[in-house]
Amino acid sequence: MNIIKGCFYVLFQSYKKQIMTFWCILFSIILLSVFLGKFFGQNISIAISVSIPVYIFYGIMAAKLLNKTLPYFLKLGLSRLQYMFNVGLFFISWSLIGSFISTCTQKIIPYVSNLFIIHPILLIDNSPSFLQMMTLDTVLLLFFLTSGLLLNVVFYRLGFFGGYSFIGLLGLIPIVTIIFKWYSPLFDLLSNISTFALLSSLLVFSAVLYTIITMMIRNASVNPA
Fold first, then answer.
1. Distances (CA, A) of 13 to 72, 90, 185
2. Are 118 and 48 in contact (CB under 8 A)?
3. 43: pLDDT confidence band, cut at 50, 70 and 90?
4. Percent helix, strand, coil in the chain (nearest 5)?
5. Is 77 exposed, middle or buried (CB count within 10 Å of its CB: 0-12, 13-18, 19+)?
6. Which of 17-21, 112-116, 184-188 is most confident?
7. 223/225 Cα distance (integer angstroms)
8. Is residue 128 within 8 Å of 120, Cβ to Cβ?
9. Pick from 137, 101, 95: which is nearest to 119 by CA?
């Protein structure tokens, strides 16, 4: 338990400044949007998203995790598997906290302003409950954290050339999807799938991805490539 607490403390301290700065900027933008909506809402329609910036921020922070923390923990004597176990727990806790803050904010905004809230769950349900919104945010945040960590481990193990080659391969996916028109069955699948099935699929995919990352980390050196 002391190891977990110590890891959580170090991981949080590694991102404390960025986390505080991000939430301050995000809430400042929200307050400005509420102000504009109060005074100009009759003439213009203002839309805002709270969750999507959080997804992006979490992904970016995860993409820097290994370089900031792995060498430090290895020098302290922590094994790579212990490191990944504690990072996984930190990701779960971080996702729960982030989804709770963003969901509370999105549920409060309609009571003080007429802003239109943009949220992925609106593609599935027009009037989602607090629990539904928070659950989707938690799962998506875990997915973005895991995806960011995957990008980080590719750069960490393969260097800049390998990392950018991997990004290039990922960039080919939407191009190939458009060329062969694979997006039509994908949209049909997403429109017909239930919320529970979608969340379960994302959660399982994130878990599999995290397992692959853990296997890639097992032989990682202290210093990045």
1. 13, 12, 44
2. yes
3. low
4. 80, 0, 15
5. exposed
6. 17-21
7. 7
8. no
9. 137
B/e letters for 9-39, b = 16+ CB within 10 Å, e = fewer, are ebbeebbeeebeebbeebeeebeebbeebee
Three-state DSSP at 116 gives strand
- φ/ψ of 44, rounded to 5, equals -135, 155
- Separation CA 129–CA 55 (nearest Å): 20
Q: Are 62 and 148 in contact (CB under 8 A)?
A: yes
Q: How many CB atoms lie within 10 A of CB 122?
A: 13
pTM score, whole prediction: 0.86
**Sign, CA torsion 203/10/55/175:** negative
Cα 195 to chain centroid distance, Å, stands at 19
Residue 211 structure tokens: 């397992």
pLDDT, tens digit, for every residue of 76-126? 888 888 899 999 999 999 999 999 999 999 989 888 888 888 888 887 777
Q: Which two tokens stand for residue 14?
A: 């590694």
Per the CB < 8 A criterion, the answer to whether 158 and 219 are in contact is no
Q: CB under 8 Å to 132, separation ≥6 — which residues?
A: 121, 125, 195
- Residue carrying the six token digits 């003439």: 43
Question: 48: which DSSP letter?
Answer: E
